[in-house]
Amino acid sequence: MIMVTGGAYQGKLDFVCRHFGLESADIANGSTCDFEEVLSAKCVKSYHRFIARLIAQGVDCVQFTERLCTENKDAIIILDEIGCGIIPAEKAERKRREITGKCGCIIARNSDDVIRVTCGLPVYIKGGKK
Amino acid sequence: MITLVTGGTKCGKSGYAEKLIDRLICPKYYIATINPVGDAAQEVIAKRMKMHTQKKYVTIECPRDIAYADIPIGSAVLVEEIGRLCANEMFVDGRILRTVDKIVSGLELIGAKASELVIVANDIGRDGISYSPELMEYIKEMGEISRRITAFSDNVIECVYSVPVALKGSALLD
CA of A93: which chain B residue's CA is closest? Predict the structure, then answer.
């Protein structure tokens, strides 16, 4: 599994497509795809938005993410870093950030490589060529 | 040695900071900066119980005036966390006070006594949102505190979804 993270609009998807030679058909959009689709897609983008959708449907996000890591071991998962801000006043938003954090940690733990993209520049923070 | 561990919400910074202290064989102190009232109280109390009973840390409640935390020379100290300490010091009786010098000098004092000091801070300035003037002052204050702590720290680690990234010094743990 490979994880690609970073701030919004920093070039994560562009990097993934160029570096791994992917086309749009290879990529499941976490904002809109069917839930089961992520379990077989080569790449999932906006996984942080996917988690928001799971929460809205009452699905256990941690359990689903662990299932993702087991059933789609070779997937590339793209999710934004969303926790670097003022703790939200709304309880639901606090919960979303916490759950996203937990799920992101699960994916990172299961990934051979974790790449952080900033201003289009990829940095391997786990794995990568030594 | 002094290490600053920073990062966003649920990024693994607390767990990482604990591991840095857990591995040491010396008296361990946990300085808790949160006021244990409101919704967060139960989680805070549970955390302190764990630190005290399972990990044998002596817990010191210190929502303000961290310079006065009673730390024996040579002990290992974990401070959690700077965001709440800053808020407690800054917003008092309807006023907004400057806190940078007070907090930084307090931490330097502890750092001079402790054999190992690990400070947990919060990265709160990257959501791109413009808040009220008071909150922007808080974000600015936290930014300056983080920079001043970095200046006297041996290591600065950012946790990104639990992956430690050494911004200064080394990560010490994988």
Answer: B9
